[in-house]
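Inverse folding, one chain.
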């Protein structure tokens, strides 16, 4: 499994081409070998690929605008070919599909794009939060997603923090989703009083030795460190997570 950084963590430092270059250099210096492209400013895919190649960073995954996936599918695929990236992801289900009356249209709307992405040798990836674990009429939304899309049509970018926040068992869901877990978001959870907070990996209370052991039994290729909200510098948070994971032998 290849250790990477989810660029959403440092999104405030990615809005110009020069800042993207500086940020990628810092991430490579920490020891990361891959990145996920998310929440960055305007940059040509050729330019981004050249930057990453120079720093020996693989582009593991993107979070791509859902409208572009639906309406500019072929162009999105072509851009990912340039990036050398096999996984085309969305960061969250658009709000309208989260309602019981509208969820049924999600598969109808996205299946054609997912099939075209698969036909190009790539995979549509869905990133979970906690709302997918709410039971509606006895069934979780994430269970409906697994029924509606085959593993060849959709992978799951499992987010460890949000599974924990939903009150679900992270290791259990790793086992359930093991055929779809090509990319995983690693972030920890700590508390301050009654408040849940995101934390660097192994700086919180989640059982990461067990989580990582479970992931070793899956087809996971990329372990992507993410921290949406940082109490200190996001670069410090990425560095701490990397050092903690490297101490366990993950690089």
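Residues assigned per position:
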């Amino acid at each position: 499994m290849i250790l990477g950084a989810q660029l959403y963590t440092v999104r405030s430092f990615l809005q110009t081409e020069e800042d993207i270059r500086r940020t990628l250099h810092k991430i490579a210096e920490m020891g990361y070998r891959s990145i996920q492209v998310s929440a960055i400013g305007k940059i040509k895919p050729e330019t981004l690929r050249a930057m990453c190649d120079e720093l020996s960073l693989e582009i593991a995954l993107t979070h791509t605008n859902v409208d572009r996936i639906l309406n500019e599918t072929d162009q999105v695929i072509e851009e990912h070919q340039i990036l050398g990236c096999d996984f085309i992801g969305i960061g969250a289900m658009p709000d309208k599909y989260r309602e019981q009356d509208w969820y049924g249209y999600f598969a109808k709307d996205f299946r054609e794009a997912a099939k075209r992405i698969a036909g190009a040798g790539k995979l549509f990836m869905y990133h979970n939060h906690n709302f997918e674990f709410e039971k509606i009429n006895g069934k979780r939304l994430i269970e409906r997603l697994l029924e509606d899309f085959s593993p060849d049509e959709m992978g799951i970018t499992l987010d460890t923090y949000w599974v924990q926040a939903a009150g679900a068992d992270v290791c259990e869901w790793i086992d359930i989703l093991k055929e779809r877990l090509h990319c995983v978001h690693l972030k920890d959870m700590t508390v301050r009083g009654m408040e849940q907070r995101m934390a660097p990996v192994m700086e919180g209370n989640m059982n990461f030795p067990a989580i990582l052991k479970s992931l070793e039994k899956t087809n996971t290729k990329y372990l992507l460190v993410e921290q949406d909200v940082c109490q200190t510098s996001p670069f410090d948070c990425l560095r701490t997570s990397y050092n903690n994971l490297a101490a366990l032998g993950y690089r």
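The CA atoms of residues 190 and 197 lie 5 Å apart. The two ends are 8 Å apart (CA to CA).
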